[in-house]
Records
---
Amino acid sequence: MTHKDFIEIHDYSADEVREIFEIARDMKASPEKYREALKGQTLAMIFEKSSTRTRVSFEVGMYQLGGHALFLSSRDIQLGRGEPIYDTAKVLSRYVNGIMARTFAHKTVTELAEYASVPVINGLTDLSHPTQAMTDYFTAWEHLGDLKGRKLAYVGDGNNMAHSLMFGAPKVGMHIAVATPGGYAPDPFVVATAQADADQAGTKVIVTTSIEEAVRDADVVTTDVWASMGQEAEAQKRQRDFEGWQVDTRVMSFARKEAIFMHCLPAHRGEEVAGEVIDSPRSVIYDEAENRLHVQKAIMYMLMKR
């Protein structure tokens, strides 16, 4: 793999995505083989947004690979308090072997990648969440086998999760349908880019305001919270706008009988998903949560191994 960074799934080929999946599967099955894979290396973890799963999975992942993770909150560094991203990237590159950033503005991560001499991993931005989308497709691969020609349906806000799932679908050979209420459609540039990738891969990208159209014959159904971190002021308006958009048993009935349900968590039962769905045998949310560890370990290994 020739990539220095992991910023968007779009940047990676289908073969490279498959390679990451195969390494993640091997790491999950035989973790002892990789106990010194990143021995003596340090990952700086920049968190403008807090997260249970992102922090724990990256920190534990580095430990299991023989390295060390350093947590840096917005209170711990000068980024955002006057120091240019250029300087932060240059200085951190002298101290650490890799940088993971979970930020608000996507530009923060892209600028870190531009100026850092060490690998930069996008842990989440307002535009995309590629490590989670990679995890979702890896989990689907585990449960369903070959993903070519299968369909993933996303129901809810056209947010960073929707974007990264759209970027990822053509890379694994899946069709994707994104259903959102009016006014909450995904970014047009992301849609156009994903569509171009899908045209090359022979897959379909559907963006619709119809839940039934999106979920019909889907093999995977997924959703996300209606108001993401940083959108708290819009929560009441979004509650009204998303009325009727809960993934419940009626919605799941449109999917294939053997379809699985996913959610990146944290979830709000009774809002974007009904308890009868997220806590049902069709739900693989805890496999999905665990797999963040394995997929991110594979990404760090591919970027940081010497």
---
Amino acid sequence: MKDITCIEDLRQVARRKVPRAFYDYADSGSYTESTYRANVADMEAIKLRQRVLVNVDKRDTSTMMVGENVSVPVALAPVGLLGMQHGDGEILACRAAQAAGIPFTLSTMSICSIEDVAKAVDKPFWFQVYVIRDRGFMRELIERAASAKCSALVLTVDLQILGQRHKDLKNGMTVPPEIRLKNVIDVAMKPRWAWSVLNGKRKTFGNLAGHVKGMDNVNSLSQWTAQQFDPTLNWRDIEWVKSLWPGKLILKGIMDVEDARIAATTGAQALVCSNHGGRQLDGAASSISMLPRVVDAVGDQIEVLFDGGVRTGMDIERALALGASGCLIGRAYAWGLGAYGQAGVTKAIEVLKKELDVSMALTGVSTISEIGPNVLLEPPFAQDGKTPKAAQPAAQRRH
């Protein structure tokens, strides 16, 4: 991996190595993908303030996220079908994250099950769950996560129905790939990928098969979600989840100030300002443009994490400057996994950490707690003719 210098390099390798159906699944947005593109474009538009003649000899990227010590303010976000980017992908990504000293979040729609990952790693990880129609199965999932000693439950609240992703329909996206001539040829041309998946622990959704009635042979994400995702999802469901879950709760998918204010009253430890990577409501605002509004509204009441469009360490600093206490990354590490397995995830984390470290030095800060609006050239994302009020650095806000 000598030639890998950035996340984009990993994306290009993954694009060559992973079958198109699974590469596109990770690297796609809903409908016209305008929100997916906005996540990245709006992030890049935020200008950092370059400083000189400041002593930044000793820098430290470590901090805390949701009560956990982390080497860099990053957690690996839940990514469905991770084991189809590389065999045993969830286990490999979790190992890489834990070795790097950051959290890993296992998706309900994973290939490896909760138990598979728990047996393969030494430390607790986070688990992501949806509110679904089969409340008995949902209760069982939460109990399984507790038995596996998961350290946080990430409740995704923005997926009561599935935003259509055109590429998945065109590719016949199923697990394993739908038998179409182009899919068969594509897999045949990627023998290393095929070998890794064939040697993986599972070939279907590990948390579902054998646990959900009629779902023993489920192979279509859209099939399962159409049957199980619950459009009646409401705030009372959060109370029910909290009654079942004994640990820390994180609400993922909060993009609106009114929703953020309600979320702050639920007793959850954190929320994630996220538009699901541009995979749900196409035409929604970028996550980064809504972050300062959410922080202004509730940042002194609940920890605010950020997700959406993080491709560089500079992006991490931008999100921290606007009030986030840490970032979740999805595509960035999924590309690393597809490119080189566990070593690729490790590389993605290393790249982001190094870029953040350099960015901190060149903006005149040495610790995460020093990052605030002071590192930005000017406050972005004016609303009603005014810029959001300057937030304190996240590390200082609720103390």
---
Amino acid sequence: MPFVDSHCHIHLPPLVADTARLIQRAREQDVQHMLCVSVSLRDTPAIDAIVAAHDNVFASVGVHPDEPAPDALYDEVVQLGRRERIVAVGETGLDYYRLTGPASAQQEAFRQQIAAARALSKPLIIHTREAAEDTLRILKEEKASEVGGVMHCFTETEAVARAALELNFLISFSGIVTFKNAQALRDVAAIVPPDRLLIETDAPYLAPVPHRGQPNEPAYVPLVAQCLADIHHISPARIGEQTTANFFALFRAARPTAA
């Protein structure tokens, strides 16, 4: 059963050095599609080159909360987001872990990107770290539920997961869920219905066990799927089938390609 890597950064080092071989390794593990996620508008040329060369790679446009946002953020995201194979806005959100400036700057950039997603009628890819309360509040205030999206690389509590589900968001788990010390996260994964799950690598970061500490890549998606399959007491094939269906239902602008 084919899998989808719903969130990776194959345009970043060290993965960008050999994307063709990386995508082939993913295919060999039945990872047939992947979403290459922007963290800065400066990423656009590198992501465009990968998408142009590989019809099974989709892309997003957005600015990570740790990155500086341009003055015309809303206008630029809307303009770039209209292009073919751009299927989402993000990753955007809030990250207070290494906050060096006012939180209000992140919040304003987040609001502008939610507005852009609504203008484009495309879902959001949400990053939140040590900012769950403000993230959920802004999603509500800006009516993000109208476009929905995904809480990527989820590491929050069951309460946050339930609140996100109520806001029309899916929950995506990365290799972190396989870590030995991540039992609390596995307990959260157990309460997320399979039809609201996505799986991801967040490559080149957060490689799952047994590759922890090494560069991550989309070929490792089945390891995350196996962990979630064990949690939900279903087969990895069923997890693959369900999360693939979830991906294409959420990212409506994405079209599956032939294997």
---
Amino acid sequence: MLLLFAALGFTVQQDEDAALLKRAEKLHNKIIAIDTHTDTALTLIRERADMNKVQADFAKLRAGRVDCCFYPIFVDQGPLEDASRDSAFDWTVAKMKAIRAYIEARPREARIALTADDIVKNKKRHRLSLVMGIENGYPIGRDLSRVQTFYDLGTRIITLSHNYDNDICDASRYPQNTWGGLSPFGKELIKEMNRLGIIVDCSHASTATLYDCLALSTAPVICSHSCVYAIKDHPRNLTDDEIRAIAAAGGVIQVTTGRWALSWLPHAEVNIGTFCDHVEYIRNLVGVEYVGIGTDFDGGGGMNELEDASKMKMITVELMRRGWTDRELELFWGGNFLRVWRAVEKAAESAK
């Protein structure tokens, strides 16, 4: 008898999951789903890349019902010396040209998005949108003219730092408190990014850097791949005060998917539910209008039940199971971020 009840319960659960998945698929036909951070670009253009190991290639993104994915170029931190800065700049330009060529060679599959409206247009044309960017402003060095070069190549987001302080700002992971937040050059950089219409990304930046950016930027700032410090006290995660400050300035927190940011539990116990706990924490703290997703696939992102981008729609299923409305899901998946990007574009127009 117990086995019969267990079997019946399993069947009911299967039916519920199937119904939720059908509803999720229908919703994804109408909304725009955006992943604001991966490290996939460098993986794709690597010689003899094993596509089976790539987490966010075009096919997996389509399978997961993702409409837009950010493909920034990750730049490792080097010494704060002219020769190293120049070398990093040349290397980054070459890599950006390579990923542009990779995308442009596949126009039936994907297009580079340079504006928020491009994403909407590409969705209507059944094309994947890819957004160029830089993770770690180190190759900018102390030369503002390089920002224009990167913009002309398609850069629409710059993550100011990585794990170490650079010429722009202090970082959160291994801070030396070099500048006490933004450097004098970093303050000029924020103004230039605002002028051009480049999104300011404070993931990896120190608390002081974040508050400097919020005070100085004429457009909302984001954290493209961060989690909640109150759930996991990792230096890369955001405190309640930081989350409130970003939301108050009209920005958005894009929750990431790596176990390193989500939980201290063993890997086997970290899953989509753990991720959704962070999402709901932010929603309950500041509102659904200020949360989204930036997976960090191919750079430490992914977990059980979300091993790669092909599983992304299962996040929708889990949030539906938790009672999220279609409107809330639309905001989470892309509506919030599109609002921010359009505000960045509007600030740039005003500056002109």
